[in-house]
Amino acid sequence: MLTGKRKGRLFLIEVKNSFAGEVVLGQDGLSATTKQEDAPMHGIGLSNVRWETEKYFGELELKTSQREFSATALLQERSDSF
User: Fold this and answer.
1) CA distance 56 to 70
2) Helical residues (DSSP H) of 1-82, grouped into ranges
3) Considering the entire predicted model, what is its pTM?
4) Is the dihedral of CA 42, 21, 18, 23 positive or negative?
5) Is-contact 4 14, C-beta < 8 A?
6) pLDDT tens readout for residues 49-65
7) I want to staple 46 with a disulfide (CB 3.0 to 4.6 A). Which of 12, 13, 30, 69 is the partner?
8) CB atoms within 10 A of CB 42
């Protein structure tokens, strides 16, 4: 499920997805890929989300509950005037 809201200069984007098994966290606090096949090609999505969130002066929150993983990003509109 993907939802998004805007209020003034703030944007809230939330993604929820079901999962089976366990979420394994890496040293960076992001979920680590457990895929064996083509492992270097997996597990970079959330690091890209974190980078973009920081670029827009925002926050990224990751949670798991009852077999559901959620990523919530709060972003601020950037002003090119500074």
Assistant:
1) 20
2) 45-55
3) 0.72
4) negative
5) yes
6) 889 999 888 999 988 88
7) 30
8) 13
